[in-house]
Structures are given as C-alpha cells and as structure tokens.
Amino acid sequence: MNDLHDAPGTGPAQTPPVLTLLHTRLNSALGGAARAWLDQALDEAAAAPGTHGPISVWELRIAEAGRRCGPEHAEAARVLLLHAARADAPTLARVYRQGTADERRAVLEALPHLVAGPEALPVVEDALRTNDTRLVAAAVGPYAARHLDAHNWRHAVLKCLFTGVPVDAVADLPRRAGADAELARMLGDYADERRAADRPVPDDLYRVLALTGHPATPTGTDASKGPTAPDGTYGPDGKES
C-alpha cells in the first residue's frame, strides 16, 4: 500500500486517482460475494459518514473487512471505506484507537488522502511509539513527511533504524534529509554506539547519512551515552523506556 500516494493537497471531496485505481484492482481480485459486500459497505459509508456520536455501520465494516475480503485485501478495503466515509481527524483517531493493528495501519495509510493539515499527527506519533514495525513503516509515509516537524521527523528516521524498518518506507527522505546537520549528528552518535557495542551499523544509516551531505566522522559526543532516543522515550533497541 505504500505506493498508493497522490500529490499533496488532494482532499476527500473527490476520489484521488490512486484510490480509483486501488478500487479497480481490488474489484478484479475479489470474488463475487466479496465485491458485493464491498460495494454495499462503500455505499453505507458514503450515505452515512460517521464523524461524531455512536459507532457507525461503516466502522463495523472496517472490522469485518478481513473476514469478508480476506487478509490480503482487507487493508485496501479499509482505506477505501475510510475515504468513502470522509473520515475527519477525530474519526480517524477513534477508529485507530479502537482498532486492531491491521485496522490501525489502514488508518495510517489513509491519512494522506483525508487530512490536509496536521490535525492527525497524534495518530502518527502514537504509531511511532510502538515496536510494531508494520505500524512504524506506515507512520513514516507522506502524511508524516508533510507535517512532522524536523525534531520529530529525525526521531522517526532513527526509530526506523532502531527497529529494522527499511528507510525506503520514509516518504520524501532525500528532500527532508538533505543538508540536515543535526540528523547527521544523531546518525553519527548511533553509529558510534553500535561500534562501541561491537554491533554492525545498518547499511541504511549510511544511506541516510549520505543524503545529509555530511561525512561519517565522529561528532565529539560521548558515544557511551548511546544515540539520542526519539522524544526521550526509546532506548537503542527501539523499545520504550
């Protein structure tokens, strides 16, 4: 799903072309009963979008998607349902909070298509506090690239390195990492800590470091203290402290 991204500014009032393509692909992959279920669920979401109040019928369909469409197609169905319902930031936060890990990932994938501003950042920040690599990978997509401030974005990159999430998952990485001396310093600290512990330095670290334009040289910081942990809540192993 991480290739399903439109240009910034696409709003929920119209269906982004990439979601139209997603719907077409999903229809071609689903059997007749699953297609009928999806069509009905999308109609329900469009007719009665739930932004406030008790749980809506379409939110129940989010939970059903795995059983109705199969695990391999459930995420695509959930993203389409969220868009059809025109879910706003509070609704997305509720679905995320109440959902399973798979449902939470669908919310993260849907963010770029539904929320134009930074209102949904708490959802991204929560995902980055987990050690679920699938959530972390979804959290560093286009929405984070557009709205995370420099401090939190740098920590998100380090979170990927800590947890083994490939940096290919980080949207807009070359632009945001370019000429970022502070990110280079943090990467150098992390590399120093890994070497001091006789542990390998991830190849992805050198990829990101090259993008910053700064050489991989010691920064003068005390490597024994370990890398700067994202928001002070993660240790070198990427776990919450």
Q: How many domains, as an integer?
A: 2
Report the order of strands and helices: HHHHHHHHHHHHH
* Biggest sheet layout: none
Number of strands: 0
Q: How many individual helices?
A: 13
C-alpha Rg (nearest Å): 20 Å
Cα-to-Cα separation, first versus last residue: 31 Å
Q: What does the average pLDDT come to?
A: 86
Beta-strand proportion: under 5%
- Low confidence ranges: 6-12, 218-241
Amount of helix: 55-70%
Morphology call: elongated
The secondary-structure class comes to mainly alpha
Region (Disordered): 209-241
Organism: Streptomyces aurantiacus
Protein name: Sugar phosphate isomerase
Topology:
Layout: H1 17-29, H2 32-47, H3 57-69, H4 71-84, H5 89-98, H6 101-114, H7 121-128, H8 133-139, H9 142-147, H10 150-163, H11 173-177, H12 181-196, H13 203-212
Helix pairs in contact: 1-4, 2-3, 2-4, 3-4, 4-6, 5-6, 6-8, 7-8, 12-13
What does this 3D model show about the protein?
- Helix 2 packs parallel to helix 4 and helix 12 (181-196) runs antiparallel to helix 13.
- The chain has two domains: 1-116, no CATH class; 118-241, no CATH class.
- By secondary structure, it is an all-alpha fold.
- It has helices at residues 17-29, 32-47, 57-69, 71-84, 89-98, 101-114, 121-128, 133-139, 142-147, 150-163, 173-177, 181-196, 203-212.
- The protein contains 13 helices and no strands.
